[in-house]
Amino acid sequence: MPTLLKNNTSPFARIAHAALIDAAVPDLTVQIADQWNDDPALLAVNSAGRVPCLVLDDGTAIAECLLIARHADNVGEAPPPGNDAPQILSIAGLALGVCDAAVQTLVGRKIVSGNFADTAFDASPIGRKRRRTMVDGLAELDARIDAAPGERLDLATIAAVTALDYVALRFPGADWVPDTPRLEALRAATAERPAFRDTRPFL
Ligand SMILES: N[C@@H](CCC(=O)N[C@@H](CS)C(=O)NCC(=O)O)C(=O)O
């Protein structure tokens, strides 16, 4: 059975996991990996030492959330969600940018002081650029997202809700996070879909 190596916070791991669940990939199992401490199980399948990584029955390992999502579309039992549509790819890319900026802010903090809670990095030029990406990206997502979810969760929906939840998880109560009523409505409307319900991030 295919095994997804992930952790409980990574937005990239959540995107991969949600895509696998929503596509109804059979017999999926999940293994928690520690991506910051050279976890041997993770390094054995992904020399980058990053989550997510999906290991297939024959040992083939697929890293990178979008490639795992693509594989999910190919092998899942659910009807395809139309992920090749340019509009879906465009919004998914925007949401990935928000996830990436948020993760890079945390990584920047870790590089500067070894401490995720130390915000000194955020005031640096790169830190400000990452912050701007999160603020503008969330606002644009709110304006562009299709707030009415379909039968399947497409990649735009999965990535946008994941970005919203990840920013909330990592920057709780931050006054710079824009209002995103349409995104929040989408999150509420899809909260009990297994792909989101079973992959909610926690610290
Ligand atoms: N582009 C990759 C990003 C994966 C990634 O950066 N994962 C982070 C967790 S959020 C990680 O494992 N970081 C450990 C490291 O950079 O060494 C994807 O889309 O899957």
What does this structure look like?
It is a single chain. The protein has eight helices and four strands, in the order βαβαββαααααα. It has 203 residues and is an alpha+beta fold. The protein has two domains: 73 residues, Glutaredoxin, CATH 3.40.30.10; 108 residues, Glutathione S-transferase Yfyf (Class Pi), Chain A, domain 2 (Up-down Bundle). A four-stranded mixed beta sheet has the order 2-1-3-4, with helices on one face. It binds glutathione (GSH). The site of glutathione has 10 residues, from loops.
Brief rundown of the structure:
By secondary structure, this protein is an alpha+beta fold. The protein has helices at residues 11-22, 40-43, 65-75, 86-113, 125-144, 155-170, 181-190, 194-197, and strands at residues 3-6, 29-32, 53-55, 61-63.
Q: How many runs of DSSP E, i.e. beta strands?
A: 4
Terminal CA distance: 28 Å
Low-confidence residue ranges: none
Helix content: 40-55%
Tell me the series of helices and strands, N- to C-terminal. Answer: EHEHEEHHHHHH
Q: Give the second-level CATH assignment, the architecture of the largest domain.
A: Up-down Bundle
**Gross geometry:** globular
Structural class: alpha+beta
Our count of helices gives 8
Oligomer: single chain
- Mean pLDDT across all amino acids: 97
Please report the first level of CATH classification, the CATH class of the largest domain: Mainly Alpha
Question: How large, in whole angstroms, is the Cα Rg?
Answer: 17 Å
| Biggest β-sheet strands, sense, barrel | 4 strands, mixed
What is the domain tally? Answer: 2
**Major sheet: arrangement of strands:** 2-1-3-4
Instruction: Classify the fold: give the CATH topology of the largest domain.
Output: Glutathione S-transferase Yfyf (Class Pi), Chain A, domain 2
